[in-house]
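Hi P.,

Sorry for the delay on this. The queue was packed all week, but I finally got your sequence through. Input first:
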Amino acid sequence: MFGPRMLLGAVIGGAAVYFLDPQNGAQRRERLMNWWDQNREPVMQTAHARAAEAQAMAAEVQAKAAEMGGRANEKVTELRSKVRP
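Then the structure:
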């Protein structure tokens, strides 16, 4: 019943209420902008580094899967030759 879409909607709704609050929303948005201005470069560098790591890992997994697929095909061929002379 409560899936990922429901959770995402709750998070977005909560953030909207928090930042668009008529009494304190402007101060919260200002603090967020100041934090982002101070931390943008480290956050972006970390994001780029993690994305590069994820791409490398994906390539490694793909290579392993291809290798395992090749081994499985070899075993199937070997077993077929034993069953069908």
